[in-house]
Amino acid sequence: MKKLVLVISFLLFSSTVQATLIDNFDGTITQIRDDGSMLMWLQDANYAKTSGFDSDGEMIWSDAKSWADNLTFAGYDNWRLPSTLPVNGSNYDYNFSVNGTTDVGYNIFSLNSEMAYLFYLELGNKGFVDISNNVLPFSEFGMHNTGLFTNIPYQHPDFGPQQYWSGTDYSVPHSPDTHAWSFKFATGHQIADHKPGSEDFAWAVRTVIPESFTVPEPTTITLLCIGIVGLAGAEVRRRRKKKVVVKS
């Protein structure tokens, strides 16, 4: 009986449902966020390279946006680059901060920044500095927790920090529209980047309407767990019945 319990525990803890990230088993991951909104991400964080669209996955903004907007994957054709909206819900604050109160900087936990929220809240990663502006050891900051996602390009922050494009323009008043928001997964830094002059990675995401979401079909591992639980229950009932027979 103890062996059965150990097997069940191992299988349950190694399942593919992690917190509010759900593996759809079709190359996509559904994210259920704190406010009930839902997003679907490509499980492969560098699918532009994997699919052969780009040699290394790093592209100028217009190419990255075109790739995401025209992508058809897992039966869906409404993919896009992640959005970066004002953390305060109304207007952008372009000042730098380390406590997430402005739109440029570290430790941004706002739902309005889809990449920052995924990095900090969903995956539980830490930025280059904490909210008191203390620099963290290299072993503590960055994209150490990848959850259910794969193929996230690893680069030391000194040599190109896993920078990903946002689909949102970085529109500073009285300034030409030459920049877009981006997020550095190696350091947790949200910042702008130059559209035609910089090459960043692209991670496709789509908005999911909760009413349309269906729970993935049970996997082999799930069915196996259910079967083992059933066997364990049968074993318990058998032993109880045996005890009753002995007492009589």
UniProtKB/TrEMBL annotation:
InterPro entries: Ice-binding_C (IPR013424). Residues 214-238 form the Ice-binding protein C-terminal domain. The keyword Cytoplasm does not apply. Keywords: Signal. Residues 1-19 form the signal peptide. Pfam families: PEP-CTERM. The keyword Signal applies. It comes from the Bacteria. This is Prephenate dehydrogenase. It comes from Candidatus Scalindua japonica.
